[in-house]
Amino acid sequence: xxxxxxxxxxxxxxxxxxxxxxxxxxxxxxxxxxxxxxxxxxxxxxxxxxxxxxxxxxxxxxxxxxxxxxxxxxxxxxxxxxxxxxxxxxxxxxxxxxxxxxxxxxxxxxxxxxxxxxxxxxxxxxxxxxxxxxxxxxxxxxxxxxxxxxxxxxxxxxxxxxxxxxxxxxxxxxxxxxxxxxxxxxxxxxxxxxxxxxxxxxxxxxxxxxxxxxxxxxxxxxxxxxxxxxxxxxxxxxxxxxxxxxxxxxxxxxxxxxxxxxxxxxxxxxxxxxxxxxxxxxxxxxxxxxxxxxxxxxxxxxxxxx
Length: 306
Hints:
Helices cover 40% and strands 16% of the residues.
């Protein structure tokens, strides 16, 4: 399956590229992408997602498009300008990519567009499947607009999957990379009372799930890209502390993180009991269904490099 990938230099991108054969990569800076990705790079074509659709040559012979590009929601405070960058990179970037798909001489068969569990907002104890209604905060609104732009590709006869991705755990970066320092220093702990549900996924399962969705004709529309077993933040904290052989008793208060991160703190404390119903019912098998096995795998790889 010949594939086209955006956002290939991010945390998830290189891991997805390892599963693909000779992918085409779209990047604002092809030279930087080639240097960062090395032998994984394949063919790299220049494209700025805010400037218009990709060049037609990018879609030649392509059967699957994986769209991972977008401004990080976890970098810096959510100022008005940053929120516009977050919205624009996802909504307008996806719109331009779909325009390119519609204008291609031959359309790809499938378009897998990364979305986020932020679609659901803060839902406390409610069990969330792909049919659950959206939330009503900033990130939920962005995800709704983002997915709507992606689903516009169905008008060109393309099967579209919007992968509502949870907290991605993996070695050498991502969400876990930001947590390790305080935990290693013995300063780790739950967020607030720790009762909120965390929808997580091992990066290896995530990339396999993206590829599985592209290869499985029965999957279309929203797909929760999260592990089978969501955990409460307190359970995650205990599991991480156990793997690191460190204490974890210092809760992070909401007001402190609100000062540090601004509105983004609401996302950190949101409770989302997300269930990957579409993936499970379609037959996808998770390598890391529980948090203990996932953290053991990730941290054993991290320690072996040190």
